[in-house]
Amino acid sequence: MAKGVNKVILLGNVGKDPEIRATQGGMTIASFSFATADRQKDQSGQYVDKTEWHNLVAFQRTAEVVRDYVKKGSQLMIEGKIQTRSWDDKESGQKKYRTEILINDLTLLGGAQGKENGNGNAPASAGRSSGNSSSTGSYGGGYGQQPDYADQGITDDDIPF
């Protein structure tokens, strides 16, 4: 069978504060709802936003970043993959399904987020990244700090967002 591709890129907002839990083995897991919007014309020619809701799950270091920096309303860019789980409902015995996005890479957007909680050095991204994004910091497996370009006279005031 040929190799397939299962990759999702989402840009949107967190629907409610993330739920954080830990497995018996100590692995941190974060889950939260995420909204994306698409603008379409209705029958009268008016533009209407259509919101799509997604269930997101993050593990280990990415889940810790979600716990520390993500809250309801946070704007994020997510890269991940789709996975559907199934289980038997204990009460009804029916088979239940849940489709989720497993987060591989998470980028915090909306510039002032870190300053709202008193930390001006909030991370910009977390997850399995190659470390070559233009974000100001990254967290996750083996990523180094991005260059700050201080020696070139570029400051935070030069950034347009």
Would you mind describing this structure in some detail?
This protein has 161 residues and is mostly beta strands. The protein has a single domain, classed as OB fold (Dihydrolipoamide Acetyltransferase, E2P), CATH 2.40.50. 9% of the residues lie in helices and 44% in strands. It has two helices and eight strands; from the N terminus they run ββββαββαββ. The chain has helices spanning 60-69, 113-116; strands at 8-14, 19-22, 28-41, 47-59, 75-88, 95-108, 125-127, 138-139. Strands 1-3-4-6-5 form a five-stranded mixed barrel. A hairpin with a 5-residue loop joins strand 3 and strand 4. The termini are far apart.
Short description:
With about 160 residues, this protein is mainly beta. The protein has helices at about 60-70, 115, and strands at about 10-15, 20, 30-40, 45-60, 75-90, 95-110, 125, 140.
Features:
five-stranded mixed beta barrel, 8 strands, 161 residues, 44% strand, OB fold (Dihydrolipoamide Acetyltransferase, E2P)
Write the layout of secondary structure elements.
Elements: E1 8-14, E2 19-22, E3 28-41, E4 47-59, H1 60-69, E5 75-88, E6 95-108, H2 113-116, E7 125-127, E8 138-139
Parallel strand pairs: 4-6, 7-8
Antiparallel strand pairs: 1-3, 1-5, 2-3, 3-4, 5-6, 6-7
Strand order of the largest sheet: 1-3-4-6-5
Domain unit count = 1
Which structural class is indicated by helix and strand composition?
mainly beta
**Number of H- or I-type helical stretches:** 2
- Flag low-confidence runs: 112-123, 128-150
Helix content: under 10%
| Biggest sheet descriptor | 5 strands, mixed, barrel
As for the CATH topology, it is OB fold (Dihydrolipoamide Acetyltransferase, E2P)
| SSE pattern, N- to C-terminal | EEEEHEEHEE
Q: How many angstroms does the end-to-end distance come to?
A: 45 Å
Q: Would you state the CATH class?
A: Mainly Beta
Strand fraction equals: 35-45%
Radius of gyration: 18 Å
| CATH superfamily label | Nucleic acid-binding proteins
Cα shape: globular
Write down how many β-strands occur, each being a DSSP E stretch of 2 or more residues.
8
Mean pLDDT value: 77
CATH architecture: Beta Barrel
